[in-house]
Amino acid sequence: MFFKPYGFLGNRMMDRSFAVGITAAKIQRIPDCRLFKKLFLNVHFNLISIIKSCYFSSMHLILQTPRLYLRRFTLADAASIYQLNSKPEVLQYLHELLVKDEAHAGEVLTNIILPQYENNLGRWAAHLKDTDEFIGWCGLKYRPEIDETDIGYRFMPQHWGKGYATEAAKYTLEYGLKTLGLTTITGRAHVENTASLKVLEKIGMQYIKDEVVDNCPVKTFIINARRWRK
């Protein structure tokens, strides 16, 4: 499980019981030392900013959206991968076997997910900013056998229908095309997976054809940097 020191992330910057927070609240109530209060509070909020920056750096934060943050997976995330990939409804339209246990999830991380990070690409763990809850993943993956980079997303069933996939995918496209400088990104979804197909349409990808990939009938979409800038 992902470790969260000090109980802060996103909007929950620091735990309310944290000593600096308590002290800052007390300083606010001191009536006759405005200069001291201003100085202390500046130090206090700078400290929060530094801690947040160091923490995000240590966990390999990739990007943030209005409601989510995406980070790199680590081997410590086996429980999260098992929780996600052991649900039949999640893998319904995918040519994948259900993950049997956390040991199997560790193999998925080691052999499939983590090696992609060497290319500055990969599937990134998605968390809610408000609660830090792991809700799935979104990201970019290079497929050398067909020389293309695809966008993918996978979320817990209890978080379907809330717009998280669209939000994560939109910002992932921007990250790939603008930050990484990719020229083209491909997206695919099973022909019967209407929810995923709608996501690809909503984020501005262009349908090009139906085909069979990995033994699955899919609809293929693309977007290039020129179209995205428009």
Explain how this protein is built.
The chain has an eight-stranded mixed beta sheet, sandwiched between helices. β1 (61-64) and β2 form a beta hairpin. It is α+β, with helices and mostly antiparallel strands and 230 residues long. It folds into two domains: 5-57; 61-229, 3-Layer(aba) Sandwich (Aminopeptidase). Helix content is 37%, strand content 25%. It contains seven helices and eight strands. α1 (19-28) runs antiparallel to α2 (34-58), α3 crosses α4 and α5 packs across α6. It has helices at residues 19-28, 34-58, 78-85, 102-113, 164-179, 194-202, 225-229; strands spanning 61-64, 68-72, 122-128, 134-143, 148-155, 184-190, 206-213, 216-224.
Short structural summary:
The chain has 230 residues and is of the alpha+beta class. Helix content is 37%, strand content 25%.
Strand content bin: 25-35%
Helix/strand class: alpha+beta
CATH class of the largest domain: Alpha Beta
String of helices and strands: HHEEHHEEEHEHEEH
The residue-averaged pLDDT reads: 83
CATH A-level architecture of the largest domain: 3-Layer(aba) Sandwich
Read across the widest sheet, the strand sequence of neighbours is: 1-2-3-4-5-6-8-7
Specify the oligomeric state. single chain
List unreliable stretches of 5+ residues.
1-20, 47-58
Termini gap: 40 Å
The outline comes out as globular
Question: CATH homologous superfamily of the largest domain?
Answer: Gcn5-related N-acetyltransferase (GNAT)
Backbone CA Rg = 21 Å
**Major beta-sheet overview:** 8 strands, mixed
Provide the CATH topology of the largest domain: Aminopeptidase
Helix count equals 7
Number of strand elements: 8
Helicity level, as a percent range? 25-40%
Whole-number total of structural domains: 2
